[in-house]
Design a protein that fits this description.
The structure is a homodimer. In chain A, α3 packs parallel to α4 and α3 packs parallel to α6. Helices cover about 30% and strands about 25% of the residues of chain A. By secondary structure, the first copy, chain A, is of the alpha+beta class. In chain A, a hairpin with a 2-residue loop joins β1 and β2. In chain A, the strands form three sheets. In chain A, strands 9-11-8-12-10-13-14 form a seven-stranded mixed β-sheet, sandwiched between helices. Chain A has a five-stranded mixed β-sheet with strand order 1-2-7-5-6, with helices on one face. Chain A has three domains: about 50 residues, no CATH class; about 110 residues, 2-Layer Sandwich (60s Ribosomal Protein L30, Chain: A); about 160 residues, Phosphoribosyl-aminoimidazole Synthetase, Chain A, domain 2 (Alpha-Beta Complex). The N terminus of chain A is likely disordered. The first copy, chain A, contains nine helices and 14 strands.
Chain lengths: ~350, ~350
Amino acid sequence: MSEGNPLNLSCPLPRNRHNHVLMAHGGGGALMQKLLHELFFPAFKMQAGSLAHDAAVIEIGGQRIAFTTDSFVVKPLRFPGGDIGSLAVHGTVNDLAMAGAQPQWISAAYILEEGFPIDELETVTVSMAAAAKDAGVTIVTGDTKVVDQGKGDGVYINTAGIGVIAHDLVIAPHRIAEGDAVIVSGDVARHGMAIMASREGLEFESAIESDSAPLASPVQDLVESGADVHCLRDLTRGGLASAMNELAREELAIMLEEAAIPVREDVRGACEMLGFDPLYVANEGRFVAFVPAAEAEKAVEVLRGNPLCADAAIVGEVVKRETAPVLLRTSVGAARILDLLSGEQLPRIC
Amino acid sequence: MSEGNPLNLSCPLPRNRHNHVLMAHGGGGALMQKLLHELFFPAFKMQAGSLAHDAAVIEIGGQRIAFTTDSFVVKPLRFPGGDIGSLAVHGTVNDLAMAGAQPQWISAAYILEEGFPIDELETVTVSMAAAAKDAGVTIVTGDTKVVDQGKGDGVYINTAGIGVIAHDLVIAPHRIAEGDAVIVSGDVARHGMAIMASREGLEFESAIESDSAPLASPVQDLVESGADVHCLRDLTRGGLASAMNELAREELAIMLEEAAIPVREDVRGACEMLGFDPLYVANEGRFVAFVPAAEAEKAVEVLRGNPLCADAAIVGEVVKRETAPVLLRTSVGAARILDLLSGEQLPRIC
């Protein structure tokens, strides 16, 4: 190991008072971006641009494939609309779909805590298998590790996935252009509020179920419709607002229309009651698509034809940046800045 | 979720008194095999045969590739000869190499415990980057999650990897045949004893360093030499004896020669002192190769030409099974059964 500054960074890693890992470092917000841009990207010599993407795109024998990984530490393990098993499949399958790939193979690696009931392991595994079948992927390899009691939390799951890009479109953040329409695939903030409700034992007037779902089929519909899809992004940790902040490039800004963003009434009520902004709440079955404005209406129509995207809507546009990277035009016409929060409002959401 | 017996197994999952996960379920021994064969394989509809392999072999556009995953929970995070970062690279790269693939891309997914020092995260990350460079692989995608203090142990790392199989050999457990020679690539039991020593603060006469190393280059040497390599297997959790037990098919047995198995004197001494059998102690830079007897001498010579395999030796042969699947001919000529232990002698070895 080399001495001194092992990354040979031009300046030492700024610490910002944080010498230890905080929950917020895993929250998809500003602190996590800091970790990525100041530690992981330089160490692994990754292009920040390539990593603004959910999956790596590599070429094997002339065929483009997407490759991605995610670990799942959601708490509780089961929640309305899913569990850690189905979530672990959806999360990885969706990262592949966002690169325009058809997900095909995934891995399943468990870190089990000593004392975890075998019954629960069986339930999670069966759920994972069912979610994989539903998403059209095969679990082809895996791993099991066990850690001492008090060094885990029942079960953590990592999935990695491989998908094949079977078309010629380049779907990537750098293709986002001024004038693009921003389309959201459905109502937002359900996953986060479902977790929150089940974690805190809250009961709302109606049950809020997670939106967790595999998104390859609507993406395929979009691609097959001939739409010139510029970029796709699923709205996980940090929600819609954080995803938009990650994607707004230097010279571009994203202007969202508050009134156009679908949020279910019960979800909005739960958010208000608990002090959450639905635009920052995590989803696990929602994405945004950037397409040229002229193709936006048709793209929405195509998406609405898929049961997972019945509420798809145009929610904003890409404009030249003047002030902040992401702005929200509220119902009274004012524009408010949607900043990157330091971390996720709800830790261990996925 | 379906009710009752969700796997539709012909008989209910036998529990053997274990209703909870034990440390031994992660140890690479009989309990882990039970979990694989009774839960994961049927749930994921995996062929047990395909999973006797370290990596899945899939085909993309006519090109065979290998895909694998491993999580690393080694304790302590740093040990003589490596750390969790280098180990996480070697483990996955080696699983790909064992399928005869040239490792190319890997992922890096961290599960961080709140409060873990950023300094240590940097050290581990730099080590991972260096190991990847040394092994000729690129880290192309990643993930970071943070769990509450007391729900992790500093850092756990998952790596998944993709390698390209650039030759026509089929290197897989089903090709092991009667008469094959069993070649081990070097002295065994160092990784486990290095971990043990650093965990317990033991000092032996000489420092025992882990053998952790990337094994793609000796495998490539072997393949390029034209040897008809039937099967390869790295000797991780459970060591040489467990690997042989996993590979001995119904009608075949593996007969090892005790005197031929290279074990360093200091390692043997440490094992004796602590009551470990070196044949069951984990390695992270050692493998066995099964080749036809007629090609064995040449294969050993080829391996010895690689600095990682200077002590390669023929240590046994594949014979028709008469009694146990794995036997050890001791120096006095008696044959003793090498059984699968229920778990690893040393938990959290990788």
